[in-house]
Design brief:
Distance between the termini: 23 Å
Radius of gyration: 20 Å
Structural class: alpha/beta
Number of strands: 17
CATH topology of the largest domain: Quinone Oxidoreductase, Chain A, domain 1
CATH superfamily of the largest domain: Medium-chain alcohol dehydrogenases, catalytic domain
Number of domains: 2
Number of helices: 10
CATH architecture of the largest domain: Alpha-Beta Complex
Order of helices and strands: EEEHEEEEEEHHEHEHEHEHEHEHEHE
Length: 333
């Protein structure tokens, strides 16, 4: 295939999006060229970039371009169809693939497993865009697994927090979620959570459902600095706290006495690095299986044409009470 051009989402200033023309190289022997069908906006790290809240130490995802804070082409969850495949890529024209690549309608990418994976039958394109965030949630639960009979609490019911709660709830005696937005709490209850509460009510509900023991495990996925303090306060003796959130440039002040020391709590940072017995490929396979078992249709609040990407980001930024997952549809633009 001769070299072509595509259009990509670029962050060019605080809360400013542009669709820029970009050259698309021909696929080399180990590369594939992909025509996008769907991609998912991350309300976590992507919105930090969108708002200009990154820090000098933040890392760029694979296949991103530019520099932080601006301008940058940044993103990591896009699904499409292979339109050209190198002889050594392992893919064929027509294959459906998930790629760790920014939002772009046509692109060429190295087909190594860390960047590209086939979308299995039974997982639609929109659902497949949830792969990366499902893998983030799964990694948090793998970092500190929930044991039968334990009480788990998840702060934040964005996509990562909601998937974390759903995965934890497969084994927990009770899973309690915390979010300030009513629609997210209602959806969590439909997904089978024991309770869904506002932040100011979490301590009393945890005390009731844990019979006074406190939360065995607390997953912090809200991105709100005060949530980590609340996690310390509600954890049981020798309880564990998993910090999934990336806080960007926001300061996270903590009061550690008396709970942190007297209860001998442990805080674990969660990141998608390989773990014993759980390499990248295994977590990818498990995440796709979770997407078969845990449908995400109700987690897609809006589907927006690619031409209107700027409006989609504005929607995620300004209306979190009503917007959870926003998918870009490349057939519309």
């Amino acid at each position: 295939m001769a070299g072509r051009s595509g259009r990509a989402v670029w962050f060019t200033g605080p809360r400013h999006i542009e669709l820029r023309e970009t050259d698309v190289r021909s696929a080399g022997p180990t590369e594939i060229t992909v025509r996008a069908t769907r991609s998912l906006i991350s309300a976590g790290t992507e919105m930090l970039v969108y708002r200009g809240d990154t820090t000098p130490g933040d890392r760029m995802p694979p296949n991103s371009e530019g520099t932080l804070p601006f301008p940058t082409k940044y993103g990591y969850q896009i699904v499409g169809e292979v339109v050209d495949a190198g002889a050594e890529s392992g893919y064929a024209v027509g294959d459906r693939v998930f790629c760790r690549h920014p939002h772009q309608d046509l692109f060429t990418i190295d087909a190594r497993p860390a960047y590209v994976v086939r979308v299995p039958d039974g997982v639609g394109d929109a659902a497949a865009t949830f792969l990366n965030l499902t893998r983030v949630a799964l990694t948090g639960v793998l970092d500190v697994p929930v044991k039968p009979g334990e009480t788990a609490v998840v702060f934040g019911q964005g996509i990562v927090g909601m998937m974390c709660a759903r995965i934890a709830n497969l084994g927990a005696a009770a899973t309690i979620v915390v979010d300030r937005f009513e629609k997210r709490r209602e959806l969590a209850l439909r997904y089978g959570m024991a309770a869904a509460v506002e932040p100011q009510d979490v301590a009393s509900v945890v005390a009731e459902l844990s019979h006074g023991r406190g939360a065995d495990i607390v997953y912090e996925a809200s991105g709100a600095p005060p949530a980590l303090q609340s996690a310390i306060e509600i954890a049981a003796d020798r309880g564990e706290i998993v910090a999934i959130s990336l806080y960007g440039s926001h300061l996270v002040p903590l009061r550690l006495a008396p709970e942190f020391h007297f209860r001998r709590l442990r805080i674990t940072s969660s990141q998608m690095t390989d773990q014993p017995r759980w390499d990248w490929a295994r977590r990818t396979e498990a995440s796709f299986e979770l997407l078969r078992r845990l449908p995400v249709d109700d987690m897609v609040s809006r589907t927006v044409g690619f031409d209107d990407a700027a409006d989609a980001y504005d929607m995620v930024d300004r209306d979190p009470a009503n917007v959870l997952g926003v998918v870009l549809d490349y057939a519309r633009g």
